[in-house]
Structures
1.
Amino acid sequence: MRKNIIAGNWKMHFSSEETKKFLNELVPKVSDAKCEVVVCPPFTSLQVASDILKNSNIKLGAQNIHFEEKGAFTGEISADMLKSFNVSYVIVGHSERRSYFNETDEDINKKIFTCLKNDFVPIFCVGETLEEREAGKMKSVLESQIKNAFLGVSKEDVKKIVVAYEPVWAIGTGKTATSEDANNVIGFIRNVVENIYDKEVSENIVILYGGSVKPNTIKEQMSMENIDGALVGGASIVVSDFESIVKF
Ligand code: PGA
């Protein structure tokens, strides 16, 4: 049985004060959740989030990590820094990082290794743009994103990775992929994983869907065979929406 995970990607939202208010409201509302609940606040809110979540069922995630241990990398955050906040998950290779901050598959591969070495679960994002989809390149894009990111990752380690299929055209647009479409593409991702590793790995790896997930889309999405959970952006910073999604 694969784990169900609902993870909230807050992106660049919420000061520490806002984080405190939000989490104090959210924690009691999802205390009986049947799935793993994760929130990924901005770095500046990790301390306050860590304090509030300590005695809760909500796991803490970070939105990024640098692959080097330390050094002259202005503006970056290391694994050790994240460890002090009891971070469990790290989002790696989000399409906004790929497109606005020029993150390459090679960077993402290194970040995955850094996560695994430090016992963080990487939430590794893949997804095609609308142009790529319309040009019939979706499968080759996804395949190369996965192959490059998993380069050198052992069979034992790859099982610890959570994949998030996030079609770029569905992120923040209100245009969610249909559940069938998402299910089929995630099925394809499982085939790619099977070709690199084996059937056991592809059947056990947790794969989330992300892209305009809302309270009114989640139930059907979660009923799909291949979809194990969701990476939620916009709806994760509204308490009532995130609560409904967690209780799909
Ligand atoms: P969205 O974002 O739910 O606002 O579309 C999802 C994501 O970027 O992870």
Note: The chain is about 45% helix and 15% strand.
2.
Amino acid sequence: MVARPLIIDCDPGHDDAVALLLAVGSPHVDLRAVTTTFGNCSVEDATRNALQILTLAHATDIPVARGAEGSIDGKSTLGNYVHGASGLDGPPMPEPGFDVSPETATELLRRTIESSTEPVSIAATGPITNVAQLLLDHPAVKDGIHEIVFMGGSTERGNHTPTAEFNTFADPEALDLVLGSGLPVRMVGLNLTHQALATPAVVERMAAMDHVVGRTCAAWMGFFGASYNRVWEFAAPPVHDPCTIAGLIDPGLIAWRDAFVAVELDGRWTRGTTVVDLHQRYPDQQPNVQVAMSLDAPRYWDLVLSAIDRVGQRS
Ligand code: BDR
Ligand code: CA
């Protein structure tokens, strides 16, 4: 089996943390670099959290570079009303066992892509600012990108606002740039991730693992679940971000549909909302995105939990 080269651009975040563990624990992907962004917390906090998560996973050989402090046009929207003041509130975490890279996120992205013999996949699980900045600063890297899979948007409802999902609200101009890049793009939106619920049965399977990694995941779900219950009245939290990695590892876990996708930049109430044309209502617009539609949730959790267990067993 040839492992697919992967970069994760993230804002950890409880569900970003599980996405990192899924990538580290999966033999199907080769996690070459992690870049961080503002989003669930400040970029400083997101960077420390990424270093701590990879330390917990004994994956301190994966370079981590700090990225955008705010959106392409300089705004900083934070989601710490969901993830707590640190961005990863809940169980204690180990001190970072390694240093952040001296490179910027865009430099690490560029160097990792250019030095790979295989085209690299990028999973973006926060505001997509770093990826847009990469395409602006180094357009030639496009040749080395296999595809961009992003968590964000929805075919239906929002969460940060009634219609806009948090990541797409936080930097719609960046997403607009990525959608217009001509690169293969896949969207994993709330319509999909709301099928990836960490039910009590899932959390029990995490807690029952005989290692700190499993128990930490269970405690993360406790904090994240309480936020989802308080803000959106969910009985169990949707674990969004690992769906991007799961879709790379096993595309058959998810049913995909080609569609034209745009993001609203100007709406008075709808800024950051994705417009997903599932029924060709804009006949002049060609499909530009593969949109995730439905998830095989039992298979998803088997994949995620076995990766977490693999990471925990070797830690
Ligand atoms: C997205 O926003 C954050 O809360 C999560 O990490 C996820 O990436 C869901 O809207
Ligand atoms: Ca995220």
Note: The chain has one domain: 4-314.
3.
Amino acid sequence: MGMKDMLLELRDKALQDLEAAVDPQQLQELKVKYLGRKGPMTEILRGMGKIPAEERPKIGEMVNQVKQVLEQTLKDRAEILREEALKAKLDHEKVDITLPGRKPGIGHLHPLTLTAREIKRIFMHMGFDVVEGPEIDNDYYNFEALNLPKDHPARDMQDTFYITENYLLRTQTSGVQARTMQAHEPNTPIRMISPGAVYRNDYDATHSPMFHQVEGLVVDRNISLADLKGTLELFCREMFGDDVKIRLRPSYFPFTEPSCEVDISCVICGGKGCNVCKHSGWLEILGAGEVHPNVLRMSGYDPSLMNGYAFGMGVERIAMLKYGIDDLRLFFENDLRFIRQFR
Ligand code: DAH
């Protein structure tokens, strides 16, 4: 076979292969095979010396022509493959704009938020301000200013998370009492509640290391326990219904004198006696009392002129009673089957 025929055969075979290539990798392999340094074209060019001199220019021209055709075909084929790949990708990733959209889920408030808001609403209607205090507080506001000096045994009533000697996670919202009085001119009347998170080292069905309280403080002239009782009775009726009764039981808190625990008639059995009220007919809901003269004095108020009452309630406890929830941990487990019941 002459050089010319060999070249033509090589060209046809290469063109056939190139047209059949289905991806860029195959094309690259063919490029190396036919046009590479070890390919037939290079070999032919190298062997030019053996060809009779008069035929050389013709053969040389042919070799160049075949090379050009192959290079052009390679380029064209690559372009076609690129377009096919893009088209396949576009077809594949097509968005069906006629599909119905996905509805965004609409959330709702957590039962504790609902309860705290309800408590706030009731007291705001009675003219109380809402005041906030820091969750990281110091020993002075959390204890000392509440008539709980260092080493006072009543500090053991609350298992405290200390951050340093002096700083702690507040165990109660009562510290806001002193902060509020100190934020006013001495002897300015006060009527405030202070909701917020508090922290104690406890964890079981009725205790969580983080829970919520609402503190209350009223300071004025001639405030009596009757004012306290009337206000709390109104609160309980708004919260639990008109039929609810309240009673005050003597108790002890360092920052009040006298102190009491406030019970409501059982919201489950109406006072007849059941498991929830342990057959007593009553449920404890908060602590309260007349503000201790030392507490007034330490925050610059004159106890011979001013007096008042204070109270503190647990938001989780109120919510549990209001909604009939028997395990406090449910509030913090974020189980939607529980949460969604309060929509
Ligand atoms: N701080 C108390 C507690 O966490 C609750 C309390 C009781 C607050 C009596 C008061 C109060 O303001 O007068 O147990």
Note: The chain is about 40% helix and 20% strand.
4.
Amino acid sequence: MAHIIIHVDLDCFYASVEKRDNPAYEGKPLVVGADPKGGAGRGVVLTASYEARKFGIRSGMPISRAYRACPAAIYVRPDFPRYIEASRRVMAILKPVSPGFQPGGLDEAYIDVTGQCPTFDAAGNLAVAIKKQVREAVGITCSVGIGPTKSLAKIATDIHKPDGITTITPETIEQVTGRLDIDAIPGIGKKTRQYYVDKGLQTVGDLYRKPLPDLVFLLGNRAAKWLYDTVHGIERSVVHERRGRKSISKERTFSEDISDYETITTKLHGLNARLHDAIREKGIFYKTVTLKIRFEGFETFMRSMSAARAMQDEAHAFAMVSAMLGPFKQNNKKVRLVGIKLSNLEGKSSSRQRTITDFLTA
Ligand code: TTP
Ligand code: MG
């Protein structure tokens, strides 16, 4: 059976986060990257808003060249923690859509929705819902491509950017992609593009219409098979399904072994707080809390306590950790490492799944 893959890619990602947080940038050419220093700056453009792209400014370009192209643009330094935070929130929306979820870096992900969407039209409706949720919850836009394979879904995403949705079905491959330059195919960069163009393969349509033996003659076996499969929607790699997470943990090694239990308790308090930030964000609940403690000489102990029902209660977890830590205080050994693990996890994904099914059948 043909698969239905959704690919989501955030639009001019770093620039979108900057615009969201600085409304004055809206509608203006904005470049995230190195300091241009009046044209003398070193370093490159990380990304440019679509307004800045009108001046020819692109990712990877020297910042000095970008400055020459548009000195009036707004130039800002990257602030990665904010981009990572935005990315996490987007992924938290995408991940529950299907167990077939595979992020590709901070700003894109593949979702295999074959099991969720009976048709490409249904996947289109789901894409609308995803875009709306990302816009409302994270405040940025994304583009979505839908296709029978990961490659075609990714090609589709780029066709209507920014803020677009494009579907390629097995029947419409040639119609939708035929006129695209072959560099629309992920994996074909500037140099390989020229190599193919020299062989008369300028567009995706040129490739599509060549029988496999002709491609083998032109390009050799490996490249021919790869390109043939890619443009004909023959699946070469499936969306990697991540097995459900079994536990989530954080630990801390001290720079020198310590015996001060106040410091140890403070450290555990911090670890517990960070773990709970993470699970609240991911919508995860747990039953079991484990304390890990390692003494000088590498002697390591684990102690666990479980709650009757799955919980997400920072104070309760810390009380459990403190209770398990108590007996260790007596043995007068220096501590090298402490950690906390939360396990017996339960997600909220079932409720999220239901919303989307409701949406599709509505
Ligand atoms: P892309 O998805 O390639 O670009 P984009 O999101 O900025 O723009 P588009 O609307 O075309 O998707 O990359 C995602 C982020 O990765 C981008 O915002 C900045 C960063 N990046 C780099 O740091 N260096 C690079 O060379 C590229 C291409 C991107
Ligand atoms: Mg992007």
Note: Residues 9-14, 46-47, 59-60, 107, 161-162 surround thymidine-5'-triphosphate (ligand 1) (CB under 6 Å).
